[in-house]
Every structure is written in structure tokens, then in C-alpha cells.
Design a protein that fits this description.
single chain, alpha+beta, 2 domains, two-stranded antiparallel ribbon, 3 helices, 9 strands, about 20% helix, elongated
Amino acid sequence: MWPLGDHKAAQNAPEGTGRQAERDNSPNGGLLVVGRRAPAPGGPAPSGPAPSGPARARLSGTIIVGSLVACAGWLVWRYFERVEVSGLSMAPALQPGDRLLLRRARSVRPGDVVAASDPRQPARPVLKRVRDVSQEGVFLLGDNPEHSTDSRQFGPVPIKSVTGKAIYRYAPPGRTGRLP
């Protein structure tokens, strides 16, 4: 039953129009209109009967799918990050233009490819492989030493500087897949 409020129309509705009046149990003995949607504030009353059967099922399905998409979007925003590789410091494993999905994580192991804040320019992220994790922090190295500025130059980075672990390459086509 839809919440309704067109009391006068229900009292005066001719037989067979689909409008039926019922008394509610409120102290003022008001009328409820059954089978019509409540009019929008300041606008005309919607026409047509309330959705039922297949139309109601489609509406319910749309609401459920929309809710699931919204939840999935929130999870991706909350727990994942996307980055694009620039430079040759991680070649040949990662090439300029590769696009990666990062899982936000603070626990890392040697061999993981991670994104971290550059200690010299904190707004600039660096993408490197973890060589070692110690009390001092995380020691990061690029796979291509000739083209990499890494922990050999700036030392270990604090674990809190690690913003995520690379888990999947989603572009370019032909290079997609899980990362080693």
C-alpha cells in the first residue's frame, strides 16, 4: 500500500476509477486513498496505479543493483588506489604507461611492489620493490638500478609512508594481469 493523501478525491471518486477510500484508525478519522501515490508537494498527483507484479520486481531489482554498485564503489574508493607508471626505474617488469591497481596496505614483505611517498617530496609517490623491512623502515629498490632513485639514495622509508601494494595491472591491453 502506498502512502496517500488525496482525501476529497477519494470521497468523491466515481465507482470503477481505481480509487478507494478507507478510514484509518487516527483520532481524526481521516481517509486514506488506496492504490494511488501521494501527490508531490506543490505538484499534481501522479497518475496511474502503484507498480505491481513485474514492474515492482524490476524496480526492486534496480534498487538492489544500484545499492550493490554504490557499495562496491565505496569499497574500491576506501581500499584501493590507481596509479600510472612513469619512468624506467621498474623496467622490465613495469613499463611507462602501465596502470596499476593498488590495495591500501601497511604490511608488506620483501618482493612486493609498493607505492610510497618520496621522502624528499612527500606529495610525489614512488613505485618500488620492497627489499627489506626492518625497525628502521622499508628499504625500497627499483628493478632497473641505472634509472632508479630509491632507498640507496634516500634511505629506508617509514612504514606509514607506504600507501599501497600493487596487485594488478589493468592497462594497457596485452599487458594486463596479476603482478608477481
